[in-house]
Amino acid sequence: MQNLLDSVRIIGDPVLRRKSRSLIFPDDLEYLRTLVKKMTNTLEVAEGLGLAAPQVGESVRLFIATPDYLDELNGHVVFINPELSPYGEMEKREEGCLSVPGIYEILSRPGRTRITAVDIRGNSFSLDVGGLAARLMLHEVDHLDGILFVDKLSSIKRKLLRGRLKRLREERGGH
Ligand SMILES: [Zn+2]
């Protein structure tokens, strides 16, 4: 179980900074199934809300959500090649990230988003979400573009966190 936690990539790891490639059906199906299984187990052990493929070292456009969100997400937990159209008023919420352990900060993002994605069977679907579910998606899709939530903090906040982020990069980032 511990080695699953160790497989989560930490800030400083270059894979977290890459733009991920889209997945192809059915060519990537076998790879996808194995990856989703690994990510699901990792998310469970890490007790996170969501996990994006780059966080386990794979540069592909896929994220998963914890089953706690099943109701809001209409039964979906796997989001492949997601496309977001965020809208609505900006909302302030606290965010954290398994790849930036121990750091939680308030961040402003659009309150709602529409998402179109593909499920594990290759069927495309759309959802319209708000609240925590919207926040989760905005956060996870950023991972697929090499963006971490701490990048979006104000320069003052980033300055205050500089020492802690540097330590994280030095301790765990050089995977
Ligand atoms: Zn994250």
Q: Level of helix content?
A: 25-40%
What fraction of residues sit in β-strands?
25-35%
At the first level of CATH, the class is Alpha Beta
Provide the structure class.
alpha+beta
Bound molecules: zinc ion
Query: Given the structure, what is the number of helices?
Result: 4
Taken from the alpha-carbon principal axes, the silhouette is globular
Low-confidence segments, ≥5 residues, pLDDT <50? none
Q: What Rg, in angstroms, do the CA atoms define?
A: 16 Å
What does the largest sheet look like? 5 strands, antiparallel
Look at the structure and name the CATH superfamily.
Answer: Peptide deformylase
What is the domain total for the residues? 1
Order of helices and strands: HHEEEEEHH
How would you describe this structure in keywords?
single chain; 175 residues; alpha+beta; Peptide Deformylase; five-stranded antiparallel sheet; binds zinc ion
State the gist of this model.
The protein has 175 residues and is of the alpha+beta class. Helix content is 32%, strand content 26%.
Describe it for me?
The protein is built from 4 helices and 5 strands. The chain has 175 residues and is an alpha+beta fold. The chain has one domain (2-173): Peptide deformylase (Peptide Deformylase, Alpha-Beta Complex). A hairpin with a 5-residue loop joins strand 4 and strand 5 (124-130). The structure holds zinc ion. Zinc ion (ZN) binds next to helix 3. The site of zinc ion (ZN) has 5 residues, from helix 3.
List the helices and strands and how they pair.
Blueprint: H1 2-6, H2 29-46, E1 50-52, E2 62-65, E3 78-95, E4 105-118, E5 124-130, H3 131-144, H4 155-173
Antiparallel strand pairs: 1-2, 2-3, 3-4, 4-5
The protein binds zinc ion.
